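Lab manual, section 2.4: Encoding a predicted structure.

Procedure: take the sequence of the chain (469 residues), apply the prediction step described in section 2.3, and record the output as structure tokens. A sample record is shown.
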Amino acid sequence: MRLTLLPLLLTLIGAAATVAVAEPADPLSGVDWPAARAEATGLLVDLLRFDTTSPPGSEAEAARYLAVRLEAEGVAAELHDLGEGRANLIARLPATAPSGEGPLCLVSHLDVASAEAERWRQPPFAGRVDAEGTIWGRGALDMKGMTVVEIEAMLLLKRLGLPRSRDVILLAVADEEVNNTGMQRLIAERWPSINCAHAINEGGVGIIDGLFPGQVLFPISVGEKGALWLRVSAEGKAGHGSTPLPDEAPDRLLAALERLRAYEPEPQVHPSLKVLFARVGETRRGLERLVFTRPLLQRTLLISALMKNPLTRAAITDTLHITGLEGAHQPNVVPSVASALLDCRLLPGTSPEEMLARVKALAADDGLTYTVLNEFAAQVSPWDDPVFDALVRAAEARPNVVAGPAISVGFTDSIFLREVGVRAYGFVPFHLTAEELGTMHGPDERLRAEELEAGVRAMLGVLVGVVGG
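Recorded output:
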């Protein structure tokens, strides 16, 4: 009997094995990608034509336009009015098969930095597409392009008709560039109805040839440096400019600033950086692999190299930056008070209080006064998280990409989301050259339409992986 059943059992096992390894159907294969690119491009062009320079922002008109587009597709959308022509946009795609997990929020901001039109090759608010398919306009990268990626991915997810295990909520907020009032008021006034568990926001982007030629480095932001903004003031006797006197306010201030400029910060290797280095090393061979994967070599060779570049130096140190001077009104009048503005950015582990004490010690003048203009500690989300894993998979779905966690040198609205318990990640799914990156807040900001489509593909992949089974 056993011999008789053996061939049947082997046949059944083989059939089971065949079923187990069969590739599931790709849900994204049903998307008409040329149509999706055209739709996303048209939406971005329209959005770029709204001048939402902050201040004053005037985001309400852009938010209303997007709300109409979303409502036409059956996606519930509302405006959170902030007054003075400013508004946040909130749109929700509800779960159809709830798992009990909190919503996934797709975050962006509708305001943009100012633009000096005379320095642009294309008018900054014309929303033009050139013959090569590049979309020009202030906000193409920071961050109306991301708004469009998130909206298009949301619409495609709805059209695919997949079961959704959790709500997807779009938050396109006002006033991120200056005071962050859009996100702060959203949390203060609307948070109980939103209460997202995870958020995807700006903060990470694919950098072409970031470390090695031919490779795209994709740091995904899991945290942001804290900040301490100060006004440092010196007082002295006012006088006439014709007669220099000892202990005048400008002299005292300049002496202190010289001591502050001599600050030499110690590099700090955050655990996220070690992980990113190791992931890069896994793609290399020989000496490069050794350097990137061995902690001792990372510190002795890589950190030394990073400290020589101002951009990478800022990523591994607590920075102290003198950003402005105040006090003088006329050349022939010595003011009684002279001040300087300081922007200090702090890695996780350094509190604003610790940095203030460091600044005072460096300035070495007990007569100075310090006014704190803004302060908050660094915030970090864990990267052993399924949403972060989905972001890595989406980034590395494109060839020659290495992705991993990183701490952003700047701060975004994610700092406020993390304060209320949200796991927030910076993931802008574009591949950009160094020259393209330099157009953020500068002239000639633009985005290639092929990258816009690639961003939609990546974001849709994340949504399908996280909420669509």
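Check your result against the sample. The longest strand covers residues 198-208.
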